[in-house]
Amino acid sequence: MDASYVDARRKEFLNLTQGNKSVAEYEAEFLSFSRYTRVMVATEYERCVRFEDGLKDSLRVLIAPQRERVFSELVEKAEIGEEGKRTERLNQEKERGRNKREAETSGVGQRRRTKARVNGPVRAGALVANPGVPPCADCGRSHRGERWKRTRACFACGSMEQRIRDCPRMLGREPIVG
């Protein structure tokens, strides 16, 4: 065999990782290239360490704590972990699909699009960060303009003339008890 060919195979072995390959495909490639690097993986322990280092992170975190040092058992455990991850992913996809179908049939998740009020009232609810707008000194929330509660303005229209319960915009709606 040509020395440059052997050197090229050794370099490929040193750079070998599982990548998008299955554990079985990675094992086959690993064993194929390891023929050219017998010194690097001379012992079962060295072979296991090198194989484990090339596994995907998601599998390595499952396998590494077991400190398996029998190559065939390491490969078997990696394949079991891979199958577990595949099953987990399929279950998540199935669950997402089920949730999406339920949302579509029940109408849940369909939101009306409303135009955001500028200088509107601060509403109670989840705190949502408003990038570029510093938090209000009074309430700690991020909003533009003055806080209507502080100015005692109407929460419906912003007028200083009346409160929301007396607002002409609110006529015909349920009365607000305050």
Describe the structure.
The chain is elongated, with a radius of gyration of 32 Å. It contains six helices and no strands. 47% of the residues lie in helices and 0% in strands. The protein folds into two domains: 3-97; 145-178, no CATH class. It has helices spanning 3-15, 23-34, 44-54, 57-63, 71-106, 148-151. The protein has 178 residues and is mainly alpha-helical. α4 packs across α5 (71-106).
For the record, the count of structural domains works out to: 2
The protein's oligomeric status is single chain
Query: Radius of gyration from the CA trace?
Result: 32 Å
Intertermini distance: 92 Å
Portion of residues in beta strands equals under 5%
Question: Could you outline the blueprint of secondary structure elements for this entry?
Answer:
Blueprint lengths: L2 H13 L7 H12 L9 H11 L2 H7 L7 H36 L41 H4 L27
Helix pairs in contact: 4-5
Concise account of the structure shown:
It is built from six helices and no strands. It has 178 residues and is mainly alpha-helical.
Which features would summarize this protein structure in a list?
single chain; 178 residues; mainly alpha; 2 domains; 6 helices
